[in-house]
Specification:
TIM Barrel; alpha/beta; binds NADP nicotinamide-adenine-dinucleotide phosphate; 32% helix; seven-stranded parallel sheet; two-stranded antiparallel sheet; 11 strands
């Protein structure tokens, strides 16, 4: 006689993306190793858009591996692909723990040219927030970054009115939390006087240390610092419009990578995660193998010697 027995319980294993720990974005908890969706569409200078099925596979695999923080924007599109639409198609119904961070401020011409103009007036931010809500199929956005400026570096000017407008949208229930992108320390302080800021997303990496001070200030304040282009300097095609990698420090990075049996891109990601527990990674890719490598970087533990070598590649900003 046979009896039915319950299957042996398998011990719960932490997902790969959790290997670097978690961080709070307001009331939401995310694994520090996340995902940037900009590359899922391909870039405007690519000859053909990214393969749609592969982009969807990348997004689903990311979530399978425990990624629960995805960065996107309505302005991440090429003529035949939209990052928000791909996310919605790939991941609906969304897992309860998934946090999707979007950005508002810049617009882009519908022909897909990569220009972040015109910049929204404060009263135009509601339309941009609503556009993200519609495209993602949500009722409320988790985190909305005011993405300041039309270039890639921090831009001048007061952010107060725009942050005030986002605060009104938060109070109206269209979004939960406000973040910033491409800002200076002074602009962070200005925004904090208006609303709690949960994250700051600026360009930063092993060979791009100009925001060391901002990263440190975010750490003091318990605000997530979310670098973009953290692998960019090492990877062909990562700098918009360019296929020329920055080779600064490539030999040293390769040596550290060889010591761990990983790739230089993984070392660059690991280095950012070692900059502080409040640093979140959002590596971008449209390639499943790269995605798996990027998530695996959460488990890399750099030694003090590794870090000394890597820290010396580019001067720390004052
Ligand atoms: N706030 C802002 O102003 C701003 C600006 C830019 C980006 N972002 C956000 O930040 C995210 C990250 O930026 P990003 O995607 O431009 O740059 P990134 O993550 O530094 O690097 C992406 C580039 O690296 C390649 N790559 C990814 N993983 C790799 C790996 N394991 N090995 C080798 N190459 C690899 C990608 O190509 P493949 O696709 O072929 O893998 C792509 O060319 C974006 O996706 C976006 O969500 C924000």
């Amino acid at each position: 006689m046979t009896t039915n027995t319950a299957p042996l319980a398998t011990p719960p294993t932490a997902p790969a993306a959790a290997a670097a720990g978690t961080w709070q974005l307001g009331d939401r908890t995310v694994n520090r190793l996340g995902f940037g969706a900009m590359r899922t569409t391909g870039m405007p200078w690519d000859e053909v858009p990214r393969d749609r099925r592969e982009a969807i596979s990348v997004l689903r695999r990311a979530v399978e591996l425990g990624v629960n923080h995805i960065d996107t924007a309505a302005f991440y599109f090429v003529p035949r692909r939209s990052a928000n639409e791909l996310i919605s198609t790939a991941l609906q119904p969304y897992a309860d723990d998934l946090v999707i961070t979007t950005k508002v401020g810049p617009s882009r011409p519908r022909d897909g040219v990569f220009e972040f103009e015109p910049y929204a007036r404060p009263d135009q931010l509601r339309g941009q927030v609503e556009e993200n809500i519609r495209q993602l199929g949500l009722d409320q956005l988790d985190v909305v970054n005011l993405r300041w400026g039309t270039g890639l570096g921090a831009a001048d000017g007061s952010v107060a009115e725009h942050v005030g407008a986002l605060t009104e949208l938060r109070d109206a229930g269209l979004l939960r939390h406000v973040g910033l992108s491409n800002v200076s320390v002074a602009q962070l302080e200005e925004a904090r006087a208006v609303v709690p800021v949960v994250c700051v997303q600026n360009r930063y990496g092993l060979t791009d240390r100009s925001d060391d001070g901002l990263l440190a200030r975010c750490g003091e304040l318990g605000i997530a610092f979310v670098p973009f282009f953290s692998m960019g300097a090492a990877v062909p095609g990562a700098v918009p419009g360019s296929n020329t990698p920055d080779e600064t420090g490539a030999e040293a990075v390769a040596a550290v990578a060889a010591g761990h049996g990983v790739t230089p891109a993984q070392v660059r990601l690991a280095w950012t995660l070692h900059r502080g527990p409040h640093v979140l990674a959002i590596p971008g890719t449209g390639d499943v193998t790269h995605l798996e490598q990027n998530v695996a970087a959460a488990a890399i533990r750099l030694t003090d010697d590794d870090r000394a070598v890597l820290d010396a590649i580019a001067p720390a900003a004052a």
